C-alpha cells in the first residue's frame, strides 16, 4: 500500500486538517475522544431490538449503521428514539441506503417516503454507477434539509422574548394559544418536550418554548468542533465529550468504491472514477466504503469505512471467513493496520454474540490497538 500522510496521522490530527469537512471533523474528534473506530451494523428486524442493541453497544461505537428498510415496524418514533440514544451515548447514525438512481429519484428517496432518511441519518451512501449527478442531487437535498432545520430553529430562537436560558426550557414562557402556521424542524415533533410551534405571520414575543434538546442542538450547529491541544487529552472521556459538544445537524455522503463481497464488479478503473468524483465534492463526501485507504493525493483526507470484518473464533486464527453468500471477512488488524482503513463495520460478529456488549468491546479494542500500531503508539 502506497504511503500517505493520513495513514500515520492520528484521528485527532486529521480532524483539525482543513481538508476535513465539518461533520468528518466531528466524527474524527469523536473517534479520538471515545477511542473507538468501530461502527456497528445493526441489521435487526424490529425497532425494539434495534433500540436495545444501540443502547447496549452505544458506548463502544462511533457510528451505528442501519438498514431501515429491514426493520418491519419502522416509524418516525423509531428514528426519534434512535436519535435520542445516539445523543446520549454519543455516536453518529449512518443509513446504509446505497442510492443508485437518477438525481431526481434519489432526492425523493433520501428525503421522502416512509423513512425520510435525511431527517435522522447524518451519513448515508451511494453508488456512483449512474454518474456524478447522484452526488450533486443528494448534496442539494441535504442542504435543503439542513436549511429547513436551521430556519425552523432560528425562527424559534429569534421569536424568543429574551435570552434563552442556559438549560433551555422556561415553563413560564409557554403560551399554548399559538399553534397556527406551525414551523417545524425536519424531525417530527411528536415528543411532548419539543414544542417548536411558532406563529409565522404574527410572531408574538411570548410564543416560544425552547426546550433543552433544541437548545443543545442549536448550539451544535457550529461548523467545527474546537481544536484541542494534544496534551489536554488526558481529561476523562466524559469531560472531553462535553467539550466536543453535540453532533452538529449536518449531512455527509460515503461513496461505495469497493465491496467486500466476492466477485464484485467494482474494477480499479471504476474505483479511480469514484475517487475523482469524491474529490470534486470534498465538502459533502466524507469518504468511502472500501477495503483499503484510497487517499493518494496530498489533499486527500477521506475516511475509509470497511465492512466484511470479523474476528475468528479462538483457535481458528488465520482461517478465511465468509458467510456462504459471498461475504468475505478480514480481521480488524488486517483492515486497519495493513489496509489503512479508518473504521471497521461489524454486523453479525457482534449482533449474533451472546453478550453483544462485551463482544463490541472486543472488536473496539482490536481495531483501536491496530490503529495505535499504525500511527506509532505514542504520538
Ligand atoms: O461492501 C460492502 C458494503 C456494505 S455497506 N459489504 C457489506 O457487507 N456492507 C454492509 O455491511 C452489509 O449491507 C451489511 O449491513 C454489513 C456487513 O454485515 P456483516 O454481518 O457481514 O458484518
TrEMBL record:
Query: Which stretches of sequence are listed as region Disordered?
Result: 157-212
SUPFAM superfamilies this protein is in? Ribulose-phoshate binding barrel
Enzyme kind, highest EC tier: lyase
**Composition skew (Polar residues), residue ranges:** 157-166
Identify the keywords attached in UniProt to this record, alphabetized.
Decarboxylase, Lyase, Pyrimidine biosynthesis
Q: Which family does it belong to?
A: Belongs to the OMP decarboxylase family.
As given in the record, the signal peptide range reads none
Its recorded name reads: Orotidine 5'-phosphate decarboxylase
Q: CDD domains under this entry?
A: OMP_decarboxylase_like (cd04725)
> Which Gene Ontology BP annotations are present?
'de novo' pyrimidine nucleobase biosynthetic process; 'de novo' UMP biosynthetic process
Say which species the protein is native to: Neocucurbitaria cava
Q: Name one GO molecular function term.
A: orotidine-5'-phosphate decarboxylase activity
